[in-house]
Amino acid sequence: MSSATLDTTRPTLLDGVGGEPTLDELLVEVWEGLTTHRAASCPACRGQMQPEYGAHARPLGGRCVRCGSRLS
Ligand SMILES: [Zn+2]
After folding, report:
1. Is 22 a residue whose pLDDT tops 80?
2. Is the dihedral of CA 11, 16, 19, 20 positive or negative?
3. Alpha helix (H) ranges present in the chain?
4. 70 Cα to the center of ligand 1, angstroms
5. How many Å lie between the centroid of ligand 1 and the Cα of residue 65?
């Protein structure tokens, strides 16, 4: 009897398929929130992100009102 088996049922942090959202997915989520004028939450602290507008209707980026993280 061998007990040297790997526990493959436990998800790893590096497994981005079907598990926790990846950083890219988080950023896309924030961007969609900003561009559709909905509330977007900061990927760092979950604070509120405010869109920053330039000369065009679409926001240039966003800034977290809580921790000051910028997304552009
Ligand atoms: Zn933040």
Report:
1. yes
2. positive
3. 23-35
4. 8
5. 7
Q: How far apart are CA 44 and CA 29, in angstroms?
A: 13
Measured in Å, residue 46 CA sits from the centre of ligand 1 at: 6
Amino acid identity, position 6 = L
Predicted local confidence at residue 45, as pLDDT: 95
SS3 of residue 25 by DSSP: helix
Q: Which stretches of the chain are assigned E, i.e. beta strand?
A: 40-41, 48-53, 59-64, 70-71
- What's the 51 CA to ligand 1 centre distance in angstroms? 13
Local confidence band at 47 (pLDDT 50, 70, 90 cut-offs): very high
Tell me if residue 19 falls in helix, strand or coil. coil
32-36, 39-43, 64-68: least confidently modelled range: 32-36
